[in-house]
Structures are given as C-alpha cells and as structure tokens.
Design brief:
The complex is a heterotrimer. Chain B contains 8 helices and 5 strands; from the N terminus they run αβββαββαααααα. By secondary structure, chain B is of the alpha/beta class. By secondary structure, chain C is an alpha/beta fold. In chain C, strands 10-9-8-7-11-12-15 form a 7-stranded mixed β-sheet, sandwiched between helices. A 6-stranded antiparallel β-sheet of chain C has the order 4-3-6-1-2-5. In chain C, helix 6 runs parallel beside helix 7. Chain C is globular, with a radius of gyration of 19 Å. The chains are: A alpha+beta, B alpha/beta, C alpha/beta. The interface between A and B is large, with 37 and 37 residues.
Chain lengths: 351, 303, 286
C-alpha cells in the first residue's frame, strides 16, 4: 500500500504549456499530441503541442520503456575479426505525461515479465527508473468509449496505481497529486504550480471515489477461471476457427497493445557497419515460429490468434499471476476487421 | 428499371439505389438458399460486430449462421482476400461490391481461384462510409466504381450516376510537384511506417508465401522501421502490384498511421492505363499487364 | 555501461573444427574463451545450450555438446541449416575455421536433471543430429568422478547411414568400455559397415531395457520419437521417467522475447529439457 501523501497542486489547463516547458527544462517530456490518426505520445519539442484533450492514444506508451528499436551493440565487419562494441544507453530523466489508468497498470504487468525469473532486462529497468509518470484520470461526465473494458480487469477510471503523480481535471483546472515520493519530489520542484484549497482536496478525493463507480462494459472475471477455461478449450478448433475467421493476422493489435512484448533481435548491416538491435515482433506474423527445419507449429491464423488470446488470459496468469490485458480497447479500435477481444473472452467463458 | 436482381417483385426504396436494408435482406435470403441447397459450403459476407458501425467479415457455414449476416454502409472490407483461405475446390458464395469484384477477376486471371467454384453476390452501391471518420468512400480514395463487374446474382439495382469522377483526379497536385518535392513527400510519409504489415494482409493480391520482405536470404530490407527499409518494402510492393492493384483502398484504410498508399497505387494504375491500355480486373478475358506482351506496347517506360 | 547485460555476448575463439559427417554439413566447433573471467563464469550442466553469435548475421541457439567435466574448452556440433529456410548464422559459422572469433551467450536453459538420475539406470536414445546434448550427458556420467553415482548406462544411437554417425571415434571408445552398454545402429549400412542395421525404435525393442529404477532420455527427429515412445511405454516406462529436449524457434534465450512460448512456459528458460509428463500439461503448440 502506498501511503497517501498530502501534496496536491494545481494549474490552469490553459497553462499546460508552461508546465510542459518547465518539464522540458528538467529532462525529456513525452506527452500526447494530436496527429492525423488521433492522439499519440511524442517527445515534445514545442511545449505548445501538448494537449490533454484526447480520449486515449492510438499507440500505447510502452515505447517509452520498450522502444520499437533498442540498439544493443554496434559492429564493424573487418578482417581478421569483426569488432563489436556495446551501445551506451544514454538517457535523460523522462517525464511521461497524461497516461490513462489502464496504461499505468500495463507498466506493472510488463515489469513482471522484464524483471522476472532472476534475469532482469537492463534496458527496461533503466528506462523505468529514469521516468516519472503523470497519470491522468478519465473524464467521468462522458460515457467511456465502446471499445474499452478496463473495468473487467479491475482498473478504475481514476486509478492511481502505477502513477508517480496523478492528475484530475476540474473544469478549467488540473489538479496534480503526488502518489510516490518521486512524484512528491517533482511537485515540490515545479514552483509554477499553484497551491490548493480544501475544496480542491475534497474534489480530488470525491473524484477518485466516483471513478470507482464509473464502469466500462464489463463482466465478472476471475483470473483463475479465465486461465482454466482457455486451457480447457485449447483444442476446440470450432471455437477458434470461428473466432479467427475474419482475422487478417496483420499484427496491428500487438503493435498498439500496451502489454504485448514479443521482439526479435536483428543484426542490421549497411556497407560493413551495423547494429544488433531489438525490434518489435508479433506472434501474429506468419513466420514468427517458423523453425530452421521448415516446421512451423502455427501455420494457421486461428493458431496464432489462439496463442495471443491464451497468452494474455491463461499463460500469463499461470506464469506471472496476472492477466496480461488492461482493457484499454486499442486493439478493438485499430483492428481492420473489428475483432473484439472482449467478445472472445465473453464467448469463451460461456462454453 | 428492373436490373438483374434476384427477387424482381420487391420494391426498391429510393429511386437511385437500393437501400442497405433491402440488400441485407436479399443477402440473407440468398445465403440461406445456397447453404440449404448445398450449392456452397460457405458464404463470405459481413456479420454483427460490437455495434452497427463495426461489422466484422463473416463466414456463414450453416443456415443457422445466416441470422448473423448484416449489410450497411460500414461493410467496407474487401471479402476477396478470404477466398484463398479455403482449400481449392471449395464452393464459396461471396458478397462483393464494385471494386471487390475487380479483385476477384484478378485472382481468377492469376489462376488462384476457379470461377466455377464461386457464386458471386454482387452489391451495387456508391454510399459506403469509412468506419473511422464516417466519410463517403469514393473515387478520391478508391477506384470509385459502384457496380460489380462480375457477378452471378445482383442484390440491388445497378447504380447509374450522371457524372463519374475519375479515380486519378486526386493525383493532380502530386503530378504537379517537381521530382524533389514528390520524393520528399514520399520520404516523409513512409518514414512514419511502423512495419505492422496490415497493408499487406488487407490486400487481396498479396498472397505470396513467403512475402519477399520476410525472406532472410537475400535480406531485402532490415526489420526495424527505418526509412531505408520502409522505402524498400513499400516501393517494392507498389511494383509487385503494378497492373494487379484494383484500387480498393483497403491498404490505406487499415494503416494505423494513415499513410496515403492509395495515391501511389493510383499513379501506377494510371500509368498502366496510359501505357498499356489496361485496367486491372475490369474484364475477365484480359491478361494481366505483366504477363501480356504486345509488339505495339509503349516504350515510354524506358524513358 | 550496463553491467551484467544478458544480451551481450563474450568473445571465444575457434580452436578446432571437426567434420562429423560425410555430407560435410555437420561440424563440431571447439571453442576457447579469450578471457579467463568469462571462462570462470561459464559454469554449465549437460543439456544446456548457448547462443552463438556472428556479428552481422545474428545468433543461433546450439546445444552444448561437450561435458562440463571437459575443462578448458566448449564444443558445439552445428548443422548448416538447410534449403527451405537458409541458415544465416549456421551457414556463416560453417565458413569459419580455426582462429576465427565469434560471440557466445550462455549457459542457457535448464539441464538434464543429473541429481534425479543418480542411482538410476539410464537409457539414452538418440537419432541422427539430435545426439549432441545426449553426448554431453553420457560423457558427464562416464567421467571417473561421476560414474559411481549412476547405475547401468545403456546407449542406443542410430543414424541413416554410417557416414552420418556423429562422434565416431568416441562411439568406438564407448563400445570398448565395460561400464556402458553401447548399441549403435544405422538404417542402412554400406560395404564396410560391420555393425547393426535397423531403425532405432526396433533396436530399442530388441534391447528391451528394463524400466525398473530406470529413466529414459530420448532425443531425435519427430519421426523417430513417434515410433520410439510406444516401445518405451510397452516396456513399462512411465511418462515422468521419459525425458526429452524440445526443439523450438528461439531468439533471446532468456525468456524475454516471447518466441518460444508454449503454454505458461518459455522453452529457453523452463526447458528445453522436459519430461513427457510435463509436456502433457502443455498445449500441443510446438
């Protein structure tokens, strides 16, 4: 249990850009900006670009800790020996601003994986340590997006878990509350923020309570029941065949998902110089499990979709004691053929 | 005017085009009839999704499945791409709009499916809407044809418009750019690609296994989404689709970062028309442009 | 500088390359560490693997063919991966000779559970190229410091033809020993072949090892496994007492990249050694 700190500050929404500018002085600011496709987290170069007028981003913020490409070492092909040098991971403090509660929860889920079984992924760890997270509550006066289902995973619209500082909107003002000591430290350094009154305190506390009552579409889901059910229906080709009949096996779902982490390690060379880097991959790609012998355990689309769903709702609970999904709805919104993982889970539980 | 609709007695709503509701009814009725009679073992159409704006491509296998079939302005998916999932010889009924039918023509020309195994349920419409932004889908982002070019049963009245926009009008500003400006435009756009390969999977013509980009020897491009590799992937893909792309716009609609791939495909299609008088998938008797050599072929491509 | 980075290879030098088979596509590489510290850290057990690294090409997970009782070097037997999916790394490795340097990450994976094998009779069954980590286990058990800890050792090893048998000199040496029953067979012999002819499953039936206080360790191509397992079930071996090493596409080798995920396991960290009973609990997705 995190001890509740009593630091609550505020700023006018119109002055968000000043807050952005202040953070940019102290490190790298990553915040939502409006793009043609919708909002997306970007490294901010101009504080005016920052906008909190969005529902949720198209791509998840996992790239902050798990970038799409991460360089491991660089090499120079030469005779008699090819030389290789590790690539320094040089990062400044990062401020990740405007993260919805479902996404702050996703970081804890990925922590279990990247820091698991006594082998810690050093890149993930270092990037996590260097970041301060500004969580941002969902608006409670408008209904949730149809695609969201974070309530099913036990996440609230104003859930502070995973944030260092948690932000709640009060009309034209933004309240910022410290959740961790890291957050408290930062809030005290941001002198441009205003002090708050007891009215503000009450508003904040009440908001969190109302956030608990606010629901997305949901059903009662016991982690162990889900894990067992998916295990039970693994060989139900009828179910998986029907579920996957529209699926293109394109991979967009895994790219936008905050808890997907499959990657490849590639040596990428151009004219004798190159880098060994980690690159996002997807279990939905046809050749993901293709072996050197030519054997591929998952040649069919339904096998790959089954792997993805079972990994999230069955294997991850068994291995890490957590469902590897936060109900953010991104995969549902981005799927070119409107496949809905909530429906898949709901149908599976009825079998 | 009574077109080739299956149920000639039903009144059409609206004088220009058969309403979506009618089309849906006819689609369900045909699907039921074909499945019940055993004439096909699967009907490829659209089914209910989370809400009306999000229908899902659907394969009806039994008469009970027919209940789930829907058709509305958001049924934009090109069902042609699912045809190759079934073993050769499977009897399939498939719901196709104008441009979707062109894709099927190309697949037949390339020997990937047999015309005799298909029952094509043609849907004439020019009122389809983009699921994300609700905009009408027309010749600006697709080929714009409203009527299927190949069908067995037409599920509505053919659409006859007074003026038909050219699918190449949108190219004008880009053709007016000088070479450097155009190159910069494409570099900027393709730099945003995240190599999710949705474009490839959405395309009915991208059926190669393995796709060139996945082959390790030779390694045509690196896996990470950097400009050099992105250019290699997309520019090669544009060429692989020359004379085959039917301008259905699916690749661009599925792209999560909104790269206007359709512009390049339209340009290549325009060149094929001008140089070789050929438009992909319009007539089943045509030969694909890449395999058809005529002595009088234009040499413009060498300039 | 990231200390203890599990993605960083250390350098080793190829001390020797031995051509194992007459088709010239399987070679054993003897590797020595360039750095004493790296060597001291590389403490391994039979059954484990390592990622061999060729900068510019990539990495390949290869089972360790030497036994930890063999000091001063590591051995890896590598097949040049074939026509369907050309092997970038194994192909490049095969072009290297003594003196060349490559990278290595390891040891990785679990191992043959040698503690559980103590005081038991061990039946080792191998086919073709899959014999590499079995050889590590056999040499480990035969080492004079270890031999007394194990009961009877029976080895049944077969290849398609005499030229395709791995470790030919070692096989001959084992045949001469009194503390191991070595049965070598080929599917089809040639003019000079004096030994047995017969498929591995039928030879197993002939040898008929007793299941009493015994554990079977079986590695081979899928077709061999398919026909050998029923023989062992018929002989009375239980599923907990039959061990195997699972083949799966791997990348990171440390349970992070997700590629070798089967059920709730990562084959690279929870395996590759599994008993049949453990495999029964996993979805058949491999």
């Amino acid at each position: 249990m995190i001890e509740e700190r009593l630091v609550l500050k505020k700023t006018a929404i119109e002055k968000i850009n000043e807050l952005a500018a202040a953070l940019m002085e102290m490190g790298t600011l990553i915040a939502p900006v409006q793009e043609a496709v919708g909002a997306n987290f970007k490294t901010i170069e101009n504080p005016q670009e920052v906008s909190l007028d969005f529902y949720n981003t198209v791509l998840s913020p996992k790239f902050v800790f798990f970038p799409q490409t991460e360089n491991f070492l660089s090499y120079q092909i030469a005779k008699p020996f090819t030389n290789a040098e590790p690539v320094e991971l040089a990062i400044t403090p990062v401020f990740l601003f405007g993260v919805r509660p479902c996404d702050t929860r996703s970081f804890a889920i990925l922590d279990r994986h990247f820091e698991a079984s006594s082998i810690v992924d050093p890149y993930w760890r270092k990037r996590r340590e260097n970041a301060t997270i500004f969580g941002y509550a969902f608006a409670l006066d408008t209904p949730p997006d149809n695609a969201d289902f974070y309530s099913m995973l036990g996440i609230h619209a104003a859930d502070t878990e995973g944030s260092d500082i948690f932000m709640v909107r009060n009309d034209g003002e933004l309240l910022l509350k410290s959740i961790t000591s890291k957050g408290e430290q930062l809030l005290s350094e941001l002198t441009l923020l205003q002090e708050t009154s007891s009215d503000d305190e009450n508003y904040y506390t009440e908001y969190l309570a109302r956030g608990r009552e606010y629901k997305t579409r949901t059903l009662c889901l016991e982690q162990e029941t889900a894990a067992g059910k998916f295990e039970e229906i693994f060989y139900n080709n009828d179910f998986w065949g029907k579920t996957a009949s529209a699926c293109l096996s394109c991979g967009i779902c895994t790219f936008v998902c905050p808890t997907c982490y499959c990657f490849d390690i590639c040596d990428e060379t151009m004219f004798k110089k190159g880098t060994r880097r980690r690159v996002w991959d997807s279990c939905m790609f046809t050749d993901f499990t293709l072996e050197a012998s030519g054997h591929n355990p998952r040649t069919n689309v339904f096998q790959r979709l089954r792997q993805k769903v079972c990994h999230k709702y069955s294997y991850s609970p068994r291995k890490y004691d957590v469902i590897s999904c936060v109900g953010c709805g991104r995969c549902v919104r981005s799927c070119p053929v409107n496949i809905d993982i909530y429906s898949i889970v709901s149908s599976a539980l009825k079998i | 005017m009574n077109g080739k609709s299956c149920c000639g007695d039903i009144e059409t709503a609206g004088d220009k085009m058969t309403g979506f509701h009618e089309i849906e009814e006819r689609l369900k009725s045909e699907a039921f009839r074909l499945l019940q009679a055993g004439e096909v073992s699967v009907v490829l159409a659209y089914g209910k999704g989370t809400d009306e704006r999000h229908p899902v491509p659907f394969a009806a296998l039994t008469t009970a499945d027919v209940e789930n079939i829907v058709f509305n302005e958001h049924c934009t998916h090109n069902m042609a791409r699912y045809l190759l999932r079934y073993p050769s010889g499977t009897k399939i009924a498939v719901a196709l709009k104008g441009v979707d039918s062109r894709a099927v023509v190309v697949l037949i020309q390339e020997g990937k499916i047999n015309r005799d195994n298909l029952v094509i349920l043609g849907i004439p419409t020019n009122s389809m809407r983009n699921q994300q932004n609700g905009q009408i889908i027309d010749a600006r982002t697709t080929c714009g044809i409203a009527n299927p070019v190949l069908f067995d049963i037409l599920l509505g009245e053919e659409v006859h418009e007074a003026t038909v926009a050219s699918p190449y009008d949108v190219l004008a500003p880009y053709e007016a750019m000088d070479e450097d400006a155009r190159w910069n435009f494409w570099k900027t756009e393709l730099d945003r690609c995240i190599r999710c390969y949705a474009c490839r999977k959405a395309c009915p013509m991208c059926y190669c296994d393995p796709c060139f980009i996945d082959v390790t020897k030779p390694r045509w491009a690196n896996k990470s989404p950097q400009l050099a590799g992105n250019l290699m992937y997309h520019l090669t893909r544009f060429q692989h689709l020359a004379g085959r792309c039917v301008d259905c716009g699916e690749c661009s609609r599925v792209c999560p970062v909104a790269i206007p791939l359709y512009l390049f495909h339209k340009k290549v299609a325009k060149d094929c028309e001008e140089m070789f008088q050929q438009t992909a998938g319009m007539r089943i008797e045509d030969k694909p442009v890449i395999v058809d050599f005529r002595v009088e072929d234009s040499d413009k491509i060498l300039e | 500088m990231i200390a203890n980075n599990p993605y960083m290879p250390v350098l080793v030098e190829i001390a020797d390359v031995i051509n194992e088979v007459d088709t010239n596509d399987i070679k054993t590489f003897r590797l020595i560490f360039l750095n004493r510290e790296d060597e001291a850290k590389f403490v391994y057990r039979p059954g484990q693997f390592a990622e061999l690294s060729i900068y510019g090409k990539g990495e390949s997970p290869i089972g360790i063919a030497s036994s930890p009782t063999q000091q001063g070097y590591l051995e890896f037997t590598v097949q040049r991966a074939g026509s369907l999916v050309p092997g970038l790394v194994t192909g490049a490795l095969h072009d290297l000779g003594a003196g060349a340097r490559i990278g290595i990450r390891g040891p990785l994976g679990n191992s043959w559970p040698v503690e559980q094998l103590e005081n038991k009779n061990i039946v080792v069954v191998g086919g073709g190229f899959a014999f590499t980590t079995l050889r590590s286990l056999i040499n480990y058990m035969l080492d004079e410091k270890n031999r007394s800890r194990f009961g009877q050792i029976t080895v049944i090893y077969g290849a398609r033809s005499p030229g395709l048998l791995l470790y030919k000199e070692e096989l001959t040496a084992w045949e001469k020993r009194g503390d191991i029953n070595t049965v070598i067979t080929v599917d089809k012999g040639n003019e000079s072949w004096q030994g047995r002819e017969g498929f591995v499953p039928s030879v197993c039936k002939e040898v008929a090892p007793s299941p009493d206080n015994a554990v079977a360790v079986i590695c081979g191509p899928p077709i061999m496994i398919k026909f050998t397992l029923p023989v062992f079930f018929d002989l009375g071996f239980s599923r907990q007492n039959i061990l195997t090493s699972l083949e799966m596409r791997m990348k990171c080798g440390i349970g992070k990249c997700g590629r070798c995920n089967v059920g709730s396991k990562y084959v690279c960290t929870d395996g590759p050694v599994f008993s049949l009973a453990e495999l029964d609990d996993l979805p058949h997705d491999f």
